[in-house]
Amino acid sequence: MDAKSNKLVARFAAVAAVLVLSACASPNRAPATADVAVSRNAVDNAVSAGAAQLAPEEINAARAKMMLANQALAAKDYKLASQLATQAQADAQLAQSKANSAKATAASQALNDDLRVLRQEVERANTPTQ
Questions:
Q1: Which residues contact 36 (CB under 8 A, 6 or more apart)?
Q2: Considering 13, 15, 52, 73, which has the largest number of Cβ atoms within 10 A of its Cβ?
Q3: Are 82 and 32 in contact, with CB atoms under 8 Å apart?
Q4: Distance (Å, whole) CA 47 – CA 31
């Protein structure tokens, strides 16, 4: 397996471990713990997609909400932890989408630039010299 596959497997294993451990905890804690783990994974995915550079506001909002969700979890306010984790996940997904969109736009622009240069070269080659 390559490094990316290993990282993905490790993330799923971590989420599974959190879910197993949370099953032993109080019934209210399990869903909140799972929500926090899923949101943490969403933030990690957004960062891997380049959100820190391409969507800094959104990823910073996601990180801030993750921090608050972890604090609420530690304070045993499971409802608030779950709500904040869900919001963090949404912010992280938005950040990842914006990062992916920015990359696609840049790639499209580079392709258009390459095509423009190619057209100029073809025109130059087909223009008769005097």
A1: 66, 69, 70, 73, 81, 82, 85
A2: 73
A3: yes
A4: 24
Residue 116 in this model has a pLDDT that exceeds 90:
yes
Q: Which amino acid is at 97?
A: S
Distance between start and end Cα atoms, the chain: 60
Closest CA to 59 of 70, 51, 49, 67: 51
Type of residue numbered 94? L
CB of 95 closer than 8 Å to CB of 62: yes
Q: Which of 9-13, 66-70, 119-123, 126-130 has the highest mean pLDDT?
A: 66-70
Q: What's CA 26's distance to the chain center, in Å?
A: 30
Q: Per the structure block, which two tokens stand in for 46?
A: 């957004």
Count helices and strands in the chain by DSSP H and E runs: 5, 0
Exposure of 54 in the CB half-sphere (CA atoms within 13 A): 20
User: Encoding tokens for residue 57?
Assistant: 């506001």
Q: Which residue has the tokens 């380049």?
A: 50
